[in-house]
Amino acid sequence: PRQQSNVTSYGVLTVTIITLEAFPGMWINAFIVCVLCIAWVKKKILNSNEKILLLLGCSRFWYLCIAWIYKFLSFIYPNYLYVQTILQLAVFFQAFFNHCNLWFSASLCGFYCIKIATFRNSFFIYLKVKVDRMVPWFLFLSGILALAVGIVAYDIADKPHCNSNSTEQGNFGTANIKMDKHFFPSFFLAGFEYAASFMAVIFSAVFLLFSLWRHKRTMQTNSMKDLSMDAHIRAMKSIFSFLVVYSINFVCLVLNMVYVTKKLNHMTFLILVFQYMFPGLHSLILVFSNPKLEKALLKILP
């Protein structure tokens, strides 16, 4: 009874904290989507940066919404998840929107790097010229990769290894997956996508920093002022703040794969807290790094 009481207390605390993180995250991402949709209706067109932000906001909103509903049912009404395909669909959509979030975020960093950085390499110049045409294909490929992980996650949740106790309160509503050879390819695919998107963010930050350093040295040599320096600095602030948050999220994603079979403990609690914090916190950073979104937010807050 005492152990059950502790589990219940952890469950209530977890649902409360997740709710306090998920709802502000859903609000800020819904705000981004609404502002961009209004601009889309007025201008009849969106630039590449706005297209990525629109899809990123949509994916984060639905990820937080579905993940919160799943966790809430897992703790409060766990029997609802025993209904056929409910658990599988919840796992599928969580995995799909989570990986969409990762890939769209990496695409945004790569776009900033290509658009703002200045290199004389012919391939980089080609990318800078063609990047607006390539963005839809990057977004389409990101969706395909996320869909592949979602399908694999659905297949895992449909296996008998994910037993009926997967929704017990003591397991944080996570499918109790038996780590055997059948699931190593699935975890390898998810880990590969985590690492690939994370490396894309790191390379974007390094290239942009190197471009800023070269640009600053050239300005000092020529004793000239260049307005593009401000663009470099703004982009660097955005990407490096994102890099810090993304690094924490990446560590949590890896730890989540390690602790997926573990029972209730402090580590799984901290992982959940950071995972639900990431979509809202980074979207807030994006709002204040975008003049249009920042102006709209400051206008409606009063």
From TrEMBL:
Q: What is the lineage of its organism?
A: Eukaryota, Metazoa, Chordata, Craniata, Vertebrata
- Highest taxon above the source species: Eukaryota
InterPro entries linked? TAS2R (IPR007960)
**TM regions (residue ranges):** 12-40, 52-70, 90-114, 135-157, 194-213, 239-261, 267-289
The name on file for this protein is Taste receptor type 2
Please indicate if the UniProt record lists Transmembrane helix as a keyword.
Answer: yes
What's the family?
Belongs to the G-protein coupled receptor T2R family.
Quote a single Gene Ontology cellular component term. membrane
Cite the entry's keywords alphabetically: G-protein coupled receptor, Membrane, Receptor, Sensory transduction, Taste, Transducer, Transmembrane, Transmembrane helix
Q: Where in the cell is it found?
A: Membrane
Pfam families per UniProt: TAS2R
Native organism is Spizella passerina (Chipping sparrow)
- How does this chain sit within the bilayer? Multi-pass membrane protein
Q: Name one GO molecular function term.
A: bitter taste receptor activity
